[in-house]
Amino acid sequence: MPLSIRPARPSDLPELVAWNAAMAWETEHRQLDRETLQRGVAGVFEHPRRGFYLIAERDGVAVGGLLVTYEWSDWRDGDFWWIQSVYVHPDARRGGVFRALYAAVAERAAAAGAVGVRLYVETDNRRAQATYEGLGMQRCHYAMYEALA
C-alpha cells in the first residue's frame, strides 16, 4: 500500500500528542505531562517559525510523523533542519514509513536552501541508528549536553 506524506494540520494535534507521549515512554521510559505536551505541539502550529510536522498516511490512516525545527549555522550561513519527535505506529514499523518521511524532509530542505538535515537518537537505539545510516546519514563527532532551566 502506498504511503503519502502531508503537512500536519491542527486537527492532527491529538494524534501528535499521543505519539510524542508513546515515543518518550518507548525510548526513555519517561511519562510526559500531557497538558505541557499539548501546549508544546500546539505551539508549533501557533508559531510556524518554530518548525512543522509531517504526517505519513497509508490508505488515509495516519501511521507516523515527525517534527522539523530549524537551527541557524553561522559557519555555513544557513539553516540546518532538525528532525525530532519521530514516531511510527508499531503496526507500520519496518514498512518504509520513516524512509518516506525522511525523503520528504530532505526534498523540502533542499528546496528551501537548508545546509543539511540533522537528528539525534537515543544512544542505545541501534535499530534507529541502522535506519539512519542506511539512508546515508553519518554519525557526527559531537556529543550532546544540556542544562534544563
UniProtKB/TrEMBL annotation:
Top-rank EC class of the record's enzyme: transferase
Gene Ontology molecular functions: acyltransferase activity
EC identifiers of the protein: 2.3.-.-
Domain N-acetyltransferase: residue ranges: 3-149
Matches recorded under InterPro entries: Acyl_CoA_acyltransferase, Bact_Acetyltransf, GNAT_dom
Protein name: GNAT family N-acetyltransferase
PROSITE patterns in alphabetical order: GNAT (PS51186)
UniProt entry keywords in alphabetical sequence: Acyltransferase, Transferase
Organism: Rhodanobacter umsongensis
PANTHER family the UniProt entry points to: AMINOALKYLPHOSPHONATE N-ACETYLTRANSFERASE-RELATED-RELATED
